[in-house]
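Course assignment 3, question 2. Fill in each field.
Student: A.L.
Task: Predict the tertiary structure for the chain below.
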Amino acid sequence: MLSRTFLPAFAAFALLLAFVCSSWAEEGKLLFVGNSITLHGPSEKVGWTGNWGMAASTAEKDYVHLVVEAVAKRRGRPPEFRVVNVAEFERDFEQYDIAAKLKDQIAFQADTVIVAIGENVSALKTDEAKAKFKESTVRLLTLLKGHGALFVRSCFWADATKDALLKEACATAGGVFVDISTLDRDEANFARSEREIAHAGVARHPGDKGMRGIADALVAAMEKRAK
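Answer field:
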């Protein structure tokens, strides 16, 4: 029989456990929005045969699948997830019709949205360019977030200007900014350090270790928010 002094402590522990489990249980629908690091189909031109995040060695080792795996373990069942490449937004953010081109993704109403962009954005050299990028990114994040949780990671190829604007846009949209700016300081995080890759552009993408680093940072941010 449980003692009277033990009962309150047990009840508190049960309540905490229920809260943590329910927080992860809410992660039932995930949306990943990014560029080639998030998803890149086969391309004979650059010698890439995968259909997952460049340049992980297999789909299971890209950051998207690693995050999904982590969520599945904590929930006790796999979440539903979708992945979209928005490199077109990065290259033409002023003209990109977010509502029309991402209609299906917005309608998905994800519980958690993870945005990983910036690498394909041209250098933002003027105040006007910076303001337009931030404005467009806020609009993108706001439409995608809906009523769910939002996580925005910094560029894998660290860029102080872009990362600062991404952080500001994330805050405006009510999201959590995830700083991964130290990853590109370690050569071991690049795919070229893990295997021979002929195309230099592909080779400078994150390899399996780099993808693990991105995933770990995102999962840690998700866990912190769930507490």
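Instructor remarks: The radius of gyration is 19 Å. The CA atoms of residues 32 and 165 lie 20 Å apart.
Grade: pending
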